[in-house]
Amino acid sequence: MPLVLMSLELIEIFRWAYGLLAELGLPPVWVMLISYGVIGVLMFGVLALLALFLVWWERKVAGHVQQRFGPMRNGWHGWYQTIADAIKLLQKEDVDIIARDKFVFFWAPVLCFVAAFLAYICIPFGKDLIVADLNIGILYIMAVTTFTVIALLMAGWGSNNKYALFGGMRSAAQAISYEVPMVASILTVIIYAGSLSMVDIVQSQNSFFGWFICRMPFGPIAFVTYIIAATAEANRAPFDIPEAEQELVAGFNIEYSGMKFAMFFLAEFINLFTVSAIAVTLFLGGWEGPWLPSWLWFLLKTLGIVFLLMMFRWTYPRLRVDQLMEFAWKFLVPVTFANLILAATMKYLGWYW
Amino acid sequence: MSEYLSVLIFIAVGTGIVLFTFLIARLIRPRNPYPEKGVAYECAEEPIGDSWIKFNPHFYIFALIFVIFDVEVVFLFPWAVAFGQLGLFALVEMVIFILILFFGLYYAWKRGVLKWV
Known about the structure:
The complex is a heterodimer. By secondary structure, chain A is mostly helical.
């Protein structure tokens, strides 16, 4: 049985399809353009399905944490509730006469989505199952996902609303503050992996005790600081003051309706999956694991981290804005940089395995 | 370098799909604007004054500190990749570099810049 499971590698399907395409006799540039284009559309489909599932799952988790059921009416345990919600959003009237700066207002959801989408070029979903193994992998992901901040600022500035402006400014301040500890915890991994490529990072942790989280004592510290910073980076509770419902109604997306709102929502859940996937790739060995096919291992580990972030959201109270900023600069930044120096010293002295 | 082409193609595909869904929504959604809909939502109150207001300068001070630390991080990325080959010299240099920046952070901290009002 394990042998049969191991052979279920999704990459074989892509190799077969690529072989068919290559045999058509097109110029190589066209083969590459078509294959990347098809993969891009497929990736969008996968991410849309994933976001629909995550929204449903989040509502179920929220329900069960609060001792209720969550969506129950549409299908088995409400499984097509989010599909119905998406169709409803498609039919909603788009109130755009509100916008102060029409150009910025229109392009903010597009930029927000594209920034979240671009990260998936170098996230390894399984062995060889990666769109393009860029040699600056993790640096590239950090660089493109930061564009979300600009999108949120654009949304806040473009809509003619004080709540939206406050939400955008707060989310920018929060995202840039937590960017520093996040990158510093990632750097501890890179010192040991010796490469920025996501595939190389996974291959450098090829057994359970090689997983970065098992490297004492700096591995667990880097993992915990990364998870805290990533939660803040994805604008999720307990760090969700940019869209704090009780103070700012909905924050930066208050004036958006219909598909534009849906794009912000989609990008938020894609970002949630991105930060979890990075955590799995850097600290939990990525696709490595026995018996099951590699993409299934990656998916299981990532959904585990997503579940952890969901439990954070529904069990912790929201931080105040001053606590949030002071926690980032007075605690996380010194701790992560001290951890980085510790990791570098231990690497130099050879006190690791 | 050809794999960097995928970045351009993903930008095009992502933008294209988003604009396509906007187009579909435009075809099937109702459109019925009237002046009351154009009023900014402030919990059913009439908005007072401009929405582009003067802002707490603390946001910008945090942005300045961030820029310094982000530049530091840009220097740290190549250092971390090549650390295995560089040895003691790189370690000492980078500890000094980080300490200088942390002296700056300590100064900002003592001046009360990091305190959110």
